[in-house]
Specification:
Layout (H helix, E strand, L loop, with lengths): L3 H5 L12 E7 L1 H4 L3 H11 L4 E2 L13 H8 L1 E8 L7 H13 L2 E7 L3 H6 L3 H13 L1 H15 L4 E3 L3
Parallel strand pairs: 1-2, 1-3, 3-4, 4-5
């Protein structure tokens, strides 16, 4: 029927439903912001990839910004840079949980950490999760643990050079 596109408001151009961002970068700022993450962002950006990177930083005690959650939802994929202090940040764990909930492509980078430690929350992550349980309770931390286990179980890139 002629005019059906207008009735259903269906865009006629390919890519009309394209997400705002190609990639959402999740990282622990103090570990990688000015080194690995900065270089990765620049390289992706220079190759035409639309990358969301939170440069504002988040202060202790702040609630995760709705704009940050929206950026995760509006990204086709996420690159999660898991570094030794990643799990010390409530913000990083909230991002990770949201990333897993969106069920899109997740590309993990294991930066100076063993993927099996990420998967099992051992090594540098063990103490971080213990402290989070004391502060936020077992239910919330279980959500974060499941997200870490999911990402730790994915094939990714391991960078161990010091």
């Amino acid at each position: 029927m002629e005019g059906d596109d207008a009735v259903y408001n269906i865009p006629s151009t390919p890519g009309a439903f394209r997400l705002l961002w190609d990639v959402f970068l999740s990282f622990r700022g103090e570990d990688t912001r000015h080194t690995f993450t900065s270089n990765l962002y620049t390289s992706l950006h220079n190759h035409g990839v639309r990358v969301f990177r939170n440069d504002d930083g988040l202060r202790r005690g702040d609630e995760i910004a709705s704009s940050l959650l929206e950026a995760i939802e509006d990204s086709a994929a996420s690159i999660v840079i898991i570094s030794p202090n990643y799990a010390s940040s409530k913000w990083c764990l909230e991002e990770l949980s949201k990333i897993c909930d969106c069920r899109r492509l997740i590309l993990p980078v294991f930066y100076r950490v063993d993927p099996s430690d990420v998967r099992r929350q051992k090594g540098p992550f063990e103490e971080h999760f213990r402290k989070h349980e004391e502060r936020f309770g077992e239910d919330k931390v279980l959500e974060w643990r499941k997200a870490m286990e999911t990402v730790g179980g994915r094939a990714g890139w391991v960078f161990t050079n010091r």
